[in-house]
Design goal:
The complex is a heterodimer of chains A (about 70) and B (about 260).
Chain A: H1 4-8, H2 13-22, E1 30-35, E2 38-42, E3 48-49, H3 52-60
Antiparallel strand pairs in A: 1-2
Chain B: E1 2-9, E2 28-32, E3 35-42, H1 51-65, E4 70-79, H2 82-103, E5 106-114, H3 117-129, H4 144-176, E6 179-186, E7 192-201, H5 205-218, E8 223-230, E9 243-247, E10 250-255
Helix pairs in contact in B: 3-4
Classes of the chains: A alpha+beta (about 70), B alpha+beta (about 260).
Chain lengths: ~70, ~260
Amino acid sequence: MHNVAIKSKEVTLLEVLDRVLNKGVVVSGDIVISVADVDLIYLGLKVLLSSVETMEQLRGSPFVGPMQEAT
Amino acid sequence: MTLYTYGIIDSSDQIKESIYGPEGSGVYNIPYCDIGVVVAELNEPVQNVSKSSVLAHEEVIERLMEHFTILPVKFHTVFDGRNSILSMMQSYYKHFKDNLNRLRDKVEFGIKVIWPADKIKKSIRNSRKKGEHEMPIPDGSLNKNFVRKKLEKYKINEEFEQKAYKFINVMDIFFSKFAAEKVLKKLKTENLLLDAAYLIDKDRQADFKKAFEHIKNAHTGFKFLFSGPWPPYNFVICRRKVSYLKIPNKKICLIK
């Protein structure tokens, strides 16, 4: 799937990674989720807007790489 | 169901082209006023980060870029549903709209310039060894050699930076003639002289490429890496503001 546009521009993977992983609109950097009026703060989160239920799911999921860390 | 986000586009129309997201589901536009958020549905909460997922993400953005002005959203931005997206759009609409207007019909190009830092430093060192640049050491110094070495190192670095900025300046003046905006990172490392992104009008791309070739040919011994056209990753300005999103049955406070 991903070959036409990218390869024709003679870019290196590094260039793609630099932009896709580091740049772009950041909707919110940090998110505070309140559970029973207690704020749980997730710092340095990859931009994630989620419900408490989803966060709970994420916390239970195994981490594959730094970008996947939910805390 | 979560919504994997690709970017904000300057249209509320549906995407006519068949583009597929991480799990093979169709990519579609969620309209908000006259703009929209392009998403794909996800069943799994988090997608693996891999080389192919990054490239696939970029591929989708580039295909959207062919038809729309797009503000790429940071990789792996996930929302938990349409309501969350609409709430976010309500908060950010003006910022997005301003950016879309500013970036319309413009693309980003990346330029990296690598220079032979070792050779440059060696030539500076050699020219200083000829004696004209002997540093005066104050009398009474306990360790003249140590002080002299330190001062010499400082002077070499200073001269090295001056040389670097002179080169960067020459290149940048030339590139800037064709650019609407630019982001420059100078001497990120000793060898990486310049890491720059230039925002170019689509109809000036050819001129910019010519300018690059000219500069490249004028600096033999330097290595140049040119990439683009990219979506304007480096030029989206989104000033944060404090807001509180209240979504039914969910408690989410955003600190911006």
